[in-house]
Design brief:
Blueprint: E1 2-3, E2 8-9, H1 49-59, H2 66-70, H3 74-87, H4 91-101, E3 108-109, H5 110-113, E4 114-119, H6 126-130, E5 141-146, H7 154-158, E6 166-172, H8 187-194, E7 205-209, H9 218-222, E8 230-236, H10 243-249, E9 253-254, H11 263-268, H12 281-297, E10 302-306, H13 314-318, H14 333-337, H15 348-360, H16 364-367, E11 376-379, E12 382-383, E13 389-394, E14 416-422, H17 424-439, H18 448-455, H19 464-472
Parallel strand pairs: 4-13, 5-6, 5-13, 6-7, 7-8
Antiparallel strand pairs: 1-2, 3-10, 8-14, 9-14, 10-11, 11-12
Helix pairs in contact: 1-3, 17-18
Protein name: Succinyl-3-ketoacid-coenzyme a transferase
Length: about 475
């Protein structure tokens, strides 16, 4: 609109009263800020109009729609987003701003590309938490962790297979000392997922940690998930009499033991070992884990975008080819923020595994569903997932809230067994499809074409996890 008397141009909305939600429990968790807005005591005199408008917009962002945000000038959008980012943005706000501002020319930060939230005591139905995490157009990829304190029924869990944007699913029984309720996860549930139409179309990583109920028969059913490349299991030892043999029958490879809690160990399950010296493996693993964890903890680190899938592969960093790059993020950010369970960077494991598997396979699972994945996000030498990443942790799995290694000893000290299964043929078939594209880039300083050729010789290569296993003997 145009006001002739003042010469101002403005836009006006009429918002019905009933659209303002009543905040009760977790039903509006995705539209409610994790922290209340704090109004600092400013300088003498009234605040500027833009400051007051920014505060009002941020305070009511849960009721804003994509139509409202698109009508705002980019400069004001960035101002509101930075205001929210410094004070804690809700998932609804993150989805609105991430979709619009990622395409803008301004400098982006990791906070705009990665979202995480922890709900300590989920009390609503599972769909209350999963519906906001679902994106039918795959504007972002979801990561969901279900742990202690969740009382979801089996029919509720069955609906997880229909989440089109779910990329990583973790179901973790809480440690014995927590004594929290936990939903039943058995072979029947996994079979129910597999028998649904197009189950888990984008799920690349599945982790199920329990001390019973999940058996080696589950390998038969998880094979039905089209994009699944890693199945990480903790289960009763008696229920897995021959995991290696069962894995081979279903087209999986069972990883060797060793360095169980290392992120780099999981990443290297998919990587060849042509360029790494054995004597440096332990130091390399510690360095990789520290770098990747600290990066996830710094929401302010700068994110750049590279078109045409020309970003440096994370594989180059893991094989020590890119270690000369100094960190461009705050290495101490993650340790400073861990004051409570809400500051834990629980998404690190899922974030980098999803990114690495996507790079090795060329994000073919996204492409096959019409999702554009040619533009890649980069922080320093690290390539992030090809789509923004939203993580939600429900419940507690250990003392203090969140732990990486919950212990199950109530049924015996050695009653459980931890296993990791990979499905390399998923990535190999995708690599063969993308091989001409990769060969055309052999002149780049990362020599990605050569690395892709090596990755195709899966039966002849030596894997890092085998060497790690030999070092622990």
């Amino acid at each position: 609109m145009f006001d002739k008397s003042s010469g101002q141009v403005f836009r006006e909305w009429t918002v019905p009263r009933q659209t303002f939600t009543i905040h009760r429990g977790d039903r509006d968790w995705s539209r409610r800020r994790p922290y209340a807005l704090f109004t600092p005591r400013g300088t003498k005199g009234p605040r500027s109009l833009i400051d007051m408008a920014t505060h009002v917009a941020a305070d009511n962002i849960g009721d804003a729609t994509e139509h409202h945000v698109e009508a705002m000038p980019a400069r004001l959008l960035w101002r509101v987003w930075r205001f929210l980012e410094a004070r804690g943005a809700c998932l609804h706000a993150w989805k609105l701003f991430s979709k619009i501002l990622v395409a803008d020319d301004e400098d982006k930060t990791l906070g705009l590309y990665r979202f995480r939230q922890h709900i300590c005591h989920p009390a609503e139905e599972l769909r209350i938490y999963t519906e906001p995490l679902t994106s039918s157009s795959i504007d972002f990829v979801a990561h969901l962790v279900i742990s202690g304190g969740c009382q979801f029924s089996t029919p509720e869990l069955l609906c997880l297979a229909g989440m089109k944007s779910l990329g990583v699913l973790e179901i973790i029984q809480p440690a014995d000392e927590v004594r929290a309720t936990f939903p039943q996860v058995s072979d029947r549930l996994i079979r129910g997922w597999a028998e649904m139409e197009n189950p888990f179309p984008l799920l690349r990583v599945l982790r199920i940690w329990r001390d019973q109920d999940t058996t080696q028969e589950s390998l038969r059913w998880v094979t039905k998930f089209p994009s699944l490349a890693l199945y990480d299991v903790m289960a009763a030892r008696d229920d897995w009499p021959d995991p290696s043999g069962s894995a081979l029958e279903q087209g999986w490879e069972m990883a060797g033991s060793g360095m169980e809690d290392s992120l780099s160990r999981y990443l290297m399950l998919f990587a060849p070992l042509e360029q790494i010296r054995s004597s440096r493996l332990r130091d390399l693993a510690r360095r990789v884990d520290a770098d990747l964890s600290s990066l996830c903890g710094d929401s302010r680190c700068a994110v750049k975008f590279v078109t045409g899938r020309q970003a440096p592969p994370l594989l180059d960093y893991l094989t020590d080819a890119a270690k000369a790059f100094p960190p461009t993020w705050d290495m101490e950010a993650s340790s400073r923020d861990v004051g409570t369970c809400h500051g834990v960077t629980f998404e690190t494991w899922a974030f980098w595994l999803y990114a690495f598997i996507g790079q090795l396979g060329g994000d073919e699972d996204l492409r096959s569903r019409g999702v554009q994945a040619d533009t890649q996000a980069v922080v320093g030498p690290f390539t992030l997932p090809s789509k923004p990443f939203a993580s939600l942790f429900l419940g507690h799995n250990g003392r203090g809230g969140i732990t990486n290694t919950p212990s199950y000893v109530s049924r015996g000290l050695f009653a459980t067994k931890r296993m990791a299964f990979t499905r390399p043929r998923i990535l190999q078939s995708q690599e063969e499809t993308l091989l001409p594209r990769k060969k055309s880039r052999e002149t780049t300083n990362m020599a990605w074409g050569t690395l892709a050729e090596h990755s195709l010789r899966s039966k002849k290569r030596q894997r890092l996890d085998d060497v790690l296993q030999s070092l622990t003997r």
